[in-house]
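Supplementary Methods. Inverse-folding protocol.

Structures were first reduced to a discrete structure-token string of length 263. This string, shown here, constituted the complete conditioning input.
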């Protein structure tokens, strides 16, 4: 117990001596206060910025389905093959390069008269194939679509308008998203009489593009988004008597930025 009292007395005397040193030395006292201030985290604000760059498409991807049925499996397959060959030949007539024509889906299955009956009576065999054609001349899209239906396509699974300058427009969307984030931070801090300082971190949360909807054999999906900056780039051109207006596609970006708050 006596030993503990001695240690406590030494600690008290040491603290008192340190206090006297600080009190007698203004430079040391100021340095101590500055160190305490630096330990405190300065105020920050984290905001997100969204931007869309809308551009006219210069490419269209047409996804077609060919479906045939027959009680004879070989006949069903032969009919399907003939329709697919007709679509490939049609693409050549529209000067579509061979690398932009491909088959992506092949499925063969039996079809029964009544699938819920105890006895399954075979009605036919179903053969399905998917053909994807990428057309570089958007103005010819409607004619190509009509001709593919005459050539043997039984389903139009997807029509997707694209831009071949995606990288350029995506960079522009990112720049606009960062600008939107700063403007949002300035608006929020301005309401409190504060100012935006230097950025601390920048993180890209999303960058992409979207057009129309996707639809496949028995499945369909679509999506939307919100933004606070929209920029139009160019205009979409189409024939006045056309039944299809490609419009514009949206290349979008979203960023999250953390700024210091300055008084």
């Amino acid at each position: 117990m006596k030993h503990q009292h001695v240690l406590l007395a030494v600690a008290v005397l040491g603290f008192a001596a340190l206090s006297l040193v600080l009190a007698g030395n203004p430079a040391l006292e100021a340095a101590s206060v500055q160190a305490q201030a630096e330990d405190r985290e300065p105020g920050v604000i984290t905001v997100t910025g969204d931007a869309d760059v809308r551009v006219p498409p210069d490419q269209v991807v047409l996804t077609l389905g060919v479906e045939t049925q027959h009680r004879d499996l070989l006949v069903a397959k032969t009919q399907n093959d003939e329709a697919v060959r007709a679509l490939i030949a049609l693409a050549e007539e529209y000067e579509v390069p061979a690398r932009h024509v491909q088959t992506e889906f092949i499925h063969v299955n039996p079809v029964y008269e009544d699938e819920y009956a105890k006895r399954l009576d075979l009605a036919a065999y179903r053969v399905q194939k998917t053909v994807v054609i990428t057309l570089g001349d958007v103005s010819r899209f409607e004619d190509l679509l009509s001709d593919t239906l005459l050539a043997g396509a039984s389903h139009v699974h997807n029509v997707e308008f694209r831009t071949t300058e995606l990288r350029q427009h995506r960079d522009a969307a990112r720049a606009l998203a960062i600008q939107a984030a700063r403007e949002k931070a300035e608006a929020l801090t301005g309401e409190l009489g504060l100012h935006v300082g230097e950025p601390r971190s920048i993180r890209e949360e999303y960058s992409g593009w979207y057009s129309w909807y996707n639809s496949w054999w028995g499945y369909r999906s679509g999506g939307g988004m919100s933004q606070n900056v929209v920029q139009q780039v160019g205009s979409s051109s189409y024939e006045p008597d056309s039944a299809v207006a490609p419009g514009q596609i949206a290349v979008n970006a979203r960023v999250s930025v953390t700024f210091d708050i300055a008084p």
